[in-house]
Amino acid sequence: MLDCLIVGGGPAGLTAALYLARFRRRCLTIDGGDARAASVPVSHNIPLFADGIGGPEILARQRRAAERYGAMLTEGTVTGLVARDGGFVADVAGHDGTSGQVAARRVLLATGAVDIEPELPGLADAVRRGLVRYCPICDGYEAVGKKVAVIGYGDRGLGEAEFIARTYSRDVTLLTLGAPMDLDADGRHRTAEHGIRVVGEPIAELDLDGDRITAIRTGSGAEHRFDVLYSALGTKVRSDLGVGLGARHDDAGCLLVDRHNQTSVPGLYAAGDVVHSLSQIVVAMGHAAVAATDIHNRCDQPIAT
Predict the structure, then answer these.
(1) Which of 42, 121, 176, 288 would be a feasible disulfide site paired with 15, CB 3.0-4.6 Å?
(2) 186 near 203, Cβ under 8 Å?
(3) Which of 153, 89, 143 is nearest to 116 (CA)?
(4) Same fold flag, 2-114+235-298 and 117-231
(5) Helix, strand or coil for residue 231?
């Protein structure tokens, strides 16, 4: 039986793998290969990397660091998780077609979240080139003084447009993609105060030229020009394994944890975007460091029932 099974190979999972390997604990990390961080073109919010570092490079460096200390990493998907015999048993489907079960005394869920993508032509290429972004906390500084569009609606869309307008740029447009945007008096006041324009038509065409978006055309043929687009449609939290075990969670599905990052299920921990917290790479790493240390400290104790 493993001391810990880590589910997820993003910044949180790989940080936990490093800590537990250096604690000389027997653990295994199951990496689904779809970490959200892998789609980050450049992050400037990672301490020590003032010039920025890409998500794929962060993950590659983390893997090398963890493996240097003997961490076991494998590609696959945990398809089921149950509590059994003072620990947990996970059903694992390997990416090579194999399948089996893994038993562990503790489990750390670092399964993250998936961005809800807007329906835009050429979206994948625009994301890779950093022209459609998902986190103004991460890279809003690079949009200072630029023409910014936010894709979204409701309180989430307006809130992100307002955040950018009062922090980085006074030239912000909210694109609702045809979704209704019935603003109340407070909403109208906020858009007016920050000079936020609202475009309610669906987007029919996205023109890219080199490192910039040249134009967006709506269904009626109207043309709008921006330097960068942010999507504020939210995320889908991958918390099914924890929820299935009865772990407490909020309305969005984010797992609720204590100060040691343990969920309401004894022995089950969570770190990163799957947790109700600020969605940032450094925060995910911090979660994992806290969880891994507590897992190490409790490994000689039986799990409470």
Answers:
(1) 288
(2) no
(3) 153
(4) yes
(5) strand
Q: What CA–CA distance (Å, rounded) separates 300 from 141?
A: 46
So where are the chain's domains?
Answer: 2-114+235-298, 117-231
The strand ranges marked E within the chain are 2-7, 27-31, 72-84, 87-94, 99-109, 113-115, 132-133, 148-151, 172-175, 197-199, 203-209, 212-218, 223-224, 228-231, 235-237, 268-270
Q: Which residues lie closer than 8 Å to 125 by C-beta, 6 or more apart?
A: 208
Contacts of 192 (CB under 8 A, 6+ apart): none
Helix, strand, coil proportions of the chain in percent (round to 5)?
A: 30, 30, 40
Contacts of 221 (CB under 8 A, 6+ apart): none
Cβ proximity of 234 and 265 under 8 Å: no
CA angle 80, 82, 87 (to 5 degrees): 130
Quote the DSSP letter at residue 219: T
Q: What CATH homologous superfamily does 2-114+235-298 map to?
A: FAD/NAD(P)-binding domain (3.50.50.60)
Reply yes or no on domain 117-231 having CATH 3.30.465.10.
no
Residue 75 in 3-state DSSP? Answer: strand
Q: pLDDT of 125-183, one tens digit each?
A: 666 666 678 889 988 998 899 999 999 988 899 999 999 999 999 999 999 988 888 88
Residue range 81-105: mean pLDDT, rounded: 94
pTM for the model stands at 0.91
